[in-house]
Each structure stands twice: as structure tokens, then as C-alpha cells.
Design goal:
By secondary structure, this protein is an alpha+beta fold. It is built from 9 helices and 20 strands. The structure holds fe (iii) ion. Fe (iii) ion binds next to loops.
Length: 349
Amino acid sequence: MPVSDYAMLEAWKTVLELSRLQSGQTVTVLTGAASHPQTVSTALTAAALMGAVVNRLDLQPVNAEKALSRDALAYLGTTPLTGNRAAIAALKESDLVLDLMTLLFSPEQHEILRSGTKILLAVEPPEVLVRMVPSVEDRARVKAATDRIVRAKVMQVRNDAGTDLTCALGQYPAISEYGFVDEPGRWDHWPSGFALTWPNEGQTQGTIVLSPGDILLPQKSYIRSEIRLVVKDGFAVEIQGGMDADLLSEYVASFNDPEAYAISHIGWGLQPRAHWTTLGLYDREATLGMDARAFEGNFLFSLGPNNEAGGSRTTACHIDIPMRNCTVTLDGEAVVTRGKVQDQERTHA
Ligand code: FE
């Protein structure tokens, strides 16, 4: 559905106000070859209307010759900022960077955040952005979930298909993604709405059984046949099943990197305006699949790096896998029961 510039400007205004943008602060809009023109123009205008000093920094794409997909999250390697001191300097001097290019998983991004600059990623198409404009309620709910992760020593995940996974926690921080950047040095992604962490290095054990309707990203497909992953000491050591398992297994194998099989972030979705169903409705190349990552009550786990959490694992391969109908417990207490988030006392308080 087309979106009016007015609706996009109003959405940006809400996001920038939630991000505490002050008149006179410097905003840099980071763009690339795939940035959506309406998102770029309305970001520039909305920031200017709030009295900010506004720049646009447009950078060249990289990694096309290595990636198997046009999805920006499908290949994590060097970024357009690698070795680009002038661009890094401009971003570090900004109070707020609106990343409409997709700068993820890079030492350069950490360096910019450490300077106090806030970075907000926003690359979903306008219709997804306006449907999932973040709110203070989103923040409260995600923060409450993150607080529960911080206190936990073990996360367990089960489903009727046979999933039985145990992840030891405590080595890595819990991350809140709620869609705006209200603190110096904060990174977030509009739209989102989920809580996550990374399991302790080498300490995830068990079996994950993906069922029809569970989702593979960046494939952006609903799987049609069961995929069984055996997880030992933090790595998927077997990927078995029918054609869906072959597609996943061969894709990961194409990176020729044993680190690609590591269990990466784990967490659950808390965004009621995100929907499991939308992946079949949008052009696959038009979205990153944030509905799939954020829909309420999913269990989202991934394969790949942990450098985003402060670990040492970097790998170009990153697979996000949102699952339905799982029961997720923290130290034995259910936070999601058969795909239903267990936080009613908090959200209605
Ligand atoms: Fe991920």
C-alpha cells in the first residue's frame, strides 16, 4: 500500500521525538544504493523540521561479488565504512545517525557508538515503518523481558515437534530492541520489538526441530518440511530433513566457515503489530523480514557471529530463524508458552 509523505513525516517525528532529538543537534542520514527514496526524503525533512543540522552521507555498496542474495543481512563482511576514515569521522561527529543503508556487525559501528553517537537503522519499506511506529509501551515491554534475561542462568526451549534446547546464559549482555534510540551510544532498529541475548560460548546443547510455518531468513521462506538440528557444545552439528533442510544446509556450507554453525542470538518477539503472515504478502526483496523477527511470541534464534555482543566470532554467514508455538523458560519460569508471551501482569499494570 503506498504511503503518503505526510504519514512518513509524522512517523519520523514520533521516532525522532522518542529518540530525544534536540534542536541544533547534528543528524546524518546514511544512505546507499538500496535506500528507499521516500524514506530518505522524509527523514531529511523531518529532522530539519525539528531544528537539527542535517547531512546526507551516501556510500557505495560492497560485497555483491561474494553474497548469494541481495538481502543486506545475508553477507556480513567488510562494510562501506571499512577503512573509510572520513565517513567514520562524520558519523562520530553526529549526535544521531539514521542508517538507511544497513550498517551492521562491524567494528566501525562499535567505534561510532562508543563516541556517544546514536544509530537508528530503518530500512524496511515505508508501509512497514508506518505500521510499526515504536512507542514507550514497546520499550517498557521489551525492557521488562530483557530484565528477566539478565537475571537468568539458563534458557530452555521446547515444542511439540521435539525441540529440546538448553542454553547457559550470563556471559553476554541482554539486548533490548524497541525501535528508537533514547540514550547516547545506543543502536536500535525501527521496526523491532524483541529481547535477545547470546548463549555462553560452547554451552548450548540439545535438538531444535523446525516445523512447517517456521521461517528462514535471509531465505524469507516458510519451511514446508521438518528440519532437525542437533546442537552440541554451541554448534549445529547435524542439519537433517527433506528439501528445506538441504536448502539450509547447502546455503550455510557455501560459506566454507565452521563458525557459521555456531548458535548466535536467542530471544523472543514482543511486537503485536508485527505479523507471522506478512512474509507471504510482501515482495521478498522489498523487506528484511522484521515482521518475522518481531512477531509476538516467536522464539527467534540464529546461526553465526557473536561479535555484536562483544564475543570474538565473526562470520559472514548469519541465519535468523523465527519459530512458532515454542515454550521458552528462563530458570524454569515460562516467558513464552506455546507461542504466547507470559507478561500480562506487566503489560496491563
Ligand atoms: Fe540476527
